[in-house]
Design brief:
Number of strands of chain A: 11
Shape of chain B: globular
Strand order of the largest sheet of chain A: 5-6-7-3-8-9
CATH topology of chain B: ABC transporter involved in vitamin B12 uptake, BtuC
Helix content of chain B: over 70%
Number of helices of chain B: 13
Strand content of chain B: under 5%
Shape of chain A: globular
Structural class of chain A: alpha/beta
Oligomer: heterodimer
Number of domains of chain B: 1
CATH superfamily of chain A: P-loop containing nucleotide triphosphate hydrolases
CATH class of chain B: Mainly Alpha
Number of strands of chain B: 0
CATH class of chain A: Alpha Beta
Largest interface: A-B, 29 and 27 residues
CATH superfamily of chain B: ABC transporter involved in vitamin B12 uptake, BtuC
Number of domains of chain A: 1
CATH architecture of chain A: 3-Layer(aba) Sandwich
Order of helices and strands of chain A: EEEHEEHHHEHEHEEHEE
Distance between the termini of chain B: 35 Å
Chain lengths: ~250, ~280
Amino acid sequence: MDANPAISFKQICFSYGERPILENASFEINSGEHLCVVGPNGGGKTTLLKLMLGLLKPQSGKISLFGASPIKNRRTVGYVPQHIHFDPLFPICVKEVVLMGCLGNHIGKSFTNEEKTKAEKVIEELGLTEQIHSPFYALSGGQRQRVLIARALIMSPKLLLLDEPTAHVDAQAEAQFREILDRLAKTLTILTVSHDLSFVSAHVKRVLCVNRKVHIHPTEALSGSLVSKLYGQEMRFVQHGHCEGACKHE
Amino acid sequence: MSELLRHILSPEIPFLRNALLAGLLASVPLGMVGTHVILRRISYLAAAIAHCILGGIGLFSLLQVRLNLPWLNPTYGAIISALAAALLISRIQQKHAAREDSLIGAIWVSGMAVGLICFQVTPSYVDPMSYLFGNILLINKQELIITAILGIIVTGCLFRYNKELTGIAFDPEFAELRGLQVHRWNLLLLTLTALTIVIMVSLVGIVLVIALLTLPPALAMHKKTSSRALLVRSTIACAILMTGGTCVSYAIDLPAGPVIIGITGLSYLCSTLRKGY
């Protein structure tokens, strides 16, 4: 386990022009933790991920991943976007998409045999062996999401960032995804952006609440009133016990 | 058909053989660059570069006559203006993304305006139509050599960096995360596009070059294939359309450029309707 925190934000401020998105965000996430990021649309969740990835620079404050800057540590981070905009006729198969995770390793040279073997292994681990040569556009939402997870995992990252991974998948694909995530959480630090509070309560111990300000709460503290305060409107918090089939309403 | 074959083989009619050879030589960079232009959806940028070339051609034509510098070939002006337009567009994409449309539109029309003014004030008569619509049948040996050299440069670069350019076309944000500096790769692609357009101007002209750059790869995409195979299929489609169009135009005695583009456009429309896209 790394001595440095996996993610450290110190007094981070970020705005798009005049519009502030994050104000004095400070928190630390330890190696091996699995946290969820919750908050209303426009609250700064995706911005938070992009700051961690080094795609955006904060106006003030310091961000470090495993003790180094996000740009320096980019290759130790796996990122699964909410969705990607691609041409529906883009000629790329599952294996090629997964191999894109190795882009930048050998510029101007083909993917190595070792990388191709690793891609096949990750594809197998995510249950996509039958689709390995299928065009990416021909896959279902759930299968595409697993391909993007495989692409993020091929470089054996220490930190996995997922942006609303269950937003565009059906119930069956979501269940498969939860299984995969539970398996990955044993070896990786994971941060998942999600609006699905039942998913949050079932899978993580701490929650990162983001709405311009950032606060970390234990999952048990995530009550209807806290969620209402966070989202700025009356919310009904429905907690599903996935194994027992029980429901708790507040 | 047999008469056409006789003309192609006849030593007295070298221009037809030159035209067919030029078409085949140009098909390779055209098919490969066109594939990436389609995958990146930058045909608008390619069109801006193509029209900007007229400015360089016009300026060099004027200087050639006014300064009495016969070696100052307008093709050099085309190369310089195409590369300058590629660089400028790349900077706009990087620094002024919000105003990209209007700024690129300004480059497009400014290049054309400079070219037309220069043609007007050049003492000897220069026909802008020959640059706007080209004529593959008038291509000479020197232009064939330039086409071959530029073709080798463009093809070599695209073969070497196909993996990176495809990755950026598929998901630029992820490619950036993998350490690729996307704006630099965009500049490379725009530079290769600019060089390919220069090759094509003498063959089909500025106005028609965009159709030939984008339609054969779009046609090749109708067959499900991998990204590497698409490069080959696009090149073959280009070669067939260029050769077929040149032969048809010669046989029916109509300008080669419009006939090539007409056949290309019809082939694409028929294939699209047949596939039901």
